[in-house]
Write a structure and sequence with these properties.
Blueprint lengths: L4 H53 L5 H14 L2 E5 L5 E4 L4 H13 L6 E5 L3 E8 L4 E9 L5 E7 L1 H51 L14 H70 L7 H32 L8 E4 H11 L1 H6 L2 E5 L6 E4 L1 H18 L8 E12 L11 E11 L20 H7 L5 H11 L4 E6 L2 E9 L2
Parallel strand pairs: 8-10
Antiparallel strand pairs: 1-2, 1-6, 3-4, 4-5, 5-6, 7-9, 10-11, 11-13, 12-13
Helix pairs in contact: 1-2, 1-4, 4-5, 5-6, 6-11, 9-11
Length: 505
C-alpha cells in the first residue's frame, strides 16, 4: 500500500504536536523574557506601594511590616534601600549599603542618557541599569516617597534570563519526550482506528471478486461500525441481486436455446414433412390424373385399384401428420404428464386383445409372460402409446427364423435400482422393465444411435412397404424423456428387443 492511512494519521498528529511544541519554544524565546520583566516591573511597583504606604502610616518599625518586607523581597528577588534627608538609611535588605547608597545618589542626581527607561514620572523612574561594579544588569526603580525619603528598588535581570533559558531548555526536553510518547500512543490509536477500516477494505476487495462470504463484525460503537453494518447489508443485497441476475440470465439462455431449438426443429420438421409427403402426394396426383383422364374407363377393377391407392396414400399421410403433431407437442413440452398409479400388466393385455385381428392376419405368435399385477407410476395414456409403438414396430419387422413361427415375446422384469450414483447408501427404487422382442434380423450397429431420430429408417424400402412414417420411435423417446425414465434396444442373433422402465413404488 503506497499511502497508509495509519501512517498518514500518525505523521499528521506527530507533525502537529512537534510543530506546536516548536511554536511554544519559539514564543518563549521571543516573549518570555519580556513577560518576566513586565511581571518583575509590576512586582517592583507593588513593593513601592507597600513601602510608601508603610512610611505614611508610620508602621515601618513594626514587626509585621518587617516580616512582610522580607517576604516581598525574597519572593520577587529584589533589593530595597530607603534613606532620609540626612542620608540616614531607614530601611534596607542589602548588605553593602554604602555602595548601594552611592549608586542611588549617582542615578538620582547624575543624568545618564544610556539608561533604558521603562517608565518615568514625577514620583519615580523605572529603567534597565548596568551595575559597573558587578557588570550585572538590573531592573531598577528610584524616586521620592511621599514622606520625602529617597528609595531604590532593584532586581537582577540576569536571573530572569537564566530562568527563561532554563524554562526553554526544560520545554525542549519535555517536548521531545512528549513527542516520542505521543508518537507511540498515536501509532497505537491509529492502528486501532485503521484496523476495522482495513477489515472493510479486505471485505470490499472480496466483494469486487463476487465473494460475499466475509462479514464485518460490528460492536455498534462508532461510525466505522455503522459503515461496516451498511457494508454487510450492501454485500447481502449484491449477493441476492447477482443471484437473481444469474438466475434470470440462465433462464434467458435457456429461452434463447429453446427458441433456437424450436427454430431448428421447425426447419427440420418442414424439411422432413416435405420429404416424406413428396412420394404419397406424387402417387395421389398420378393416380388422380389417371382417373381424370379415364385411363381405365371400361375397367372397373383398375379404377377401384386407383381409388384404393389414393385412399391408402391419403391414410398414410394422415397417420404421419397426426404422429408428427403428437411428437411436436411432446418435444415442445406442451403436453402435461399426469403421473398416476395403474396396472401395467393389464394395460399390455388389453392392448394385445385389441390388436388380435392384426396378429391373426399376420400369423404372428404373441407370447406374454404370465405375471401378477404390477402397479406403476406413470402417465397411463402415454405409456399405452409407447406399448403401441413398440408392438407396431415389432409386427412390421418380425420374420420367420429357421422355419419357425413369427414370434413377439413380451416380458416383465422387476428389480431394485439405485437412482443416485453419488450416494451409494441411498434407498433403492423398485423398477419394472417391460420388453418387446420380435424374431427377425438385428439392427445394424451403425444404425443403433440413430433409430430414435425423426424420419430415420433402417430399411427405407421395407418401411415404405408397410407404410411406416419413421416417427414412432421418436415419439417413444419424447414420452420416456418427459417421464424421466429409461428406454433402449438390444440386438440378438435371432431378433431385436425394445424395452422401457417405470417405477413401481
Amino acid at each position: 500500500m503506497k499511502y497508509s492511512i495509519k501512517q498518514q494519521i500518525a505523521f499528521i498528529f506527530i507533525l502537529v504536536m512537534a510543530g506546536t511544541i516548536a511554536l511554544c519554544w519559539t514564543i518563549n524565546n521571543i516573549f518570555l523574557e519580556n513577560y518576566y520583566i513586565k511581571n518583575k516591573k509590576d512586582a517592583v511597583r507593588d513593593a513601592y506601594k507597600s513601602i510608601n504606604e508603610a512610611f505614611i502610616s508610620g508602621d515601618i518599625a513594626s514587626e509585621t511590616f518587617d516580616m512582610e518586607f522580607r517576604r516581598v523581597c525574597d519572593m520577587y528577588n529584589i533589593d530595597v534601600l530607603v534613606i532620609d534627608a540626612e542620608s540616614n538609611i531607614t530601611k534596607t535588605n542589602f548588605m553593602d549599603t554604602r555602595r548601594l547608597k552611592q549608586h542611588l545618589y549617582d542615578i538620582f542626581f547624575l543624568s545618564d542618557s544610556s539608561l533604558k527607561y521603562l517608565e518615568n514620572n514625577d514620583k519615580f523612574c523605572i529603567a534597565m541599569v548596568m551595575d559597573v561594579f558587578t557588570s550585572t544588569e538590573y531592573l531598577e526603580m528610584w524616586g521620592v516617597l511621599e514622606n520625602g525619603n529617597l528609595f531604590l528598588i532593584r532586581s537582577p535581570v540576569e536571573s530572569i534570563r537564566d530562568s527563561v533559558k532554563i524554562a526553554n531548555k526544560f520545554l525542549a526536553y519535555v517536548g521531545v519526550i512528549a513527542t516520542l510518547i505521543s508518537a507511540v500512543l498515536i501509532w497505537f490509536v491509529a492502528t486501532k482506528i485503521t484496523k476495522p477500516i482495513m477489515q472493510l477494505k479486505d471485505i470490499s476487495e472480496k466483494m469486487t471478486n463476487l465473494n460475499f462470504e466475509s462479514k464485518y463484525i460490528s460492536t455498534g460503537k462508532n461510525e466505522i461500525d455503522l459503515l461496516g453494518e451498511h457494508i454487510n447489508a450492501l454485500s447481502q443485497t449484491l449477493e441476492s441481486t447477482i443471484s437473481e441476475l444469474k438466475t434470470a440470465n440462465n433462464e434467458l439462455k435457456r429461452d434463447i436455446e429453446k427458441k433456437e431449438q424450436i427454430d431448428e426443429m421447425r426447419k427440420e420438421f418442414l424439411a422432413n414433412v416435405s420429404h416424406e409427403l413428396k412420394t404419397p402426394i406424387a402417387l395421389i396426383q398420378g393416380y388422380a390424373e389417371g382417373l381424370k383422364e379415364c385411363v381405365y374407363e371400361d375397367d372397373a377393377e383398375s379404377r377401384d385399384f386407383y381409388c384404393e391407392v389414393i385412399m391408402d396414400e391419403a391414410g398414410k399421410m394422415n397417420t404421419m401428420v397426426r404422429k408428427l403433431l403428437d411428437l411436436n407437442q411432446l418435444e415442445f413440452g406442451n403436453d402435461v404428464v399426469t403421473m398416476e398409479r395403474f396396472n401395467i400388466v393389464a394395460l399390455v393385455q388389453n392392448f394385445i386383445q385389441s390388436a388380435d385381428i392384426l396378429i391373426s392376419q399376420n400369423n404372428i405368435e404373441v407370447r406374454i409372460e404370465q405375471s401378477p399385477p404390477i402397479y406403476v407410476w406413470a402417465d397411463e395414456f402415454q405409456t399405452e402409446e409407447v406399448v403401441r409403438n413398440f408392438f407396431s414396430n415389432a409386427m412390421n419387422h418380425v420374420k420367420l427364423i429357421a422355419g419357425n413361427k413369427k414370434v413377439i415375446d413380451i416380458k416383465y422384469n422387476c428389480y431394485f435400482k439405485n437412482t443416485s450414483k453419488e450416494n451409494k447408501n441411498k434407498e433403492s427404487v423398485k423398477i419394472v422393465r417391460v420388453s418387446v422382442f420380435n424374431t427377425g434380423d438385428p439392427i445394424p450397429e451403425e444404425s443403433l444411435p440413430h433409430i430414435w431420430e425423426k424420419f430415420y429408417k433402417v430399411d427405407k424400402a421395407r418401411t415404405r412397404e408397410y407404410g411406416g412414417s419413421g416417427v414412432g420411435l421418436s415419439i417413444v423417446k419424447a414420452i420416456m424423456d418427459s417421464m424421466n425414465q429409461q428406454y433402449g434396444v438390444i440386438n440378438y442373433t435371432n431378433g431385436v428387443e425394445f424395452w422401457f422402465e417405470l417405477e413401481t413404488e
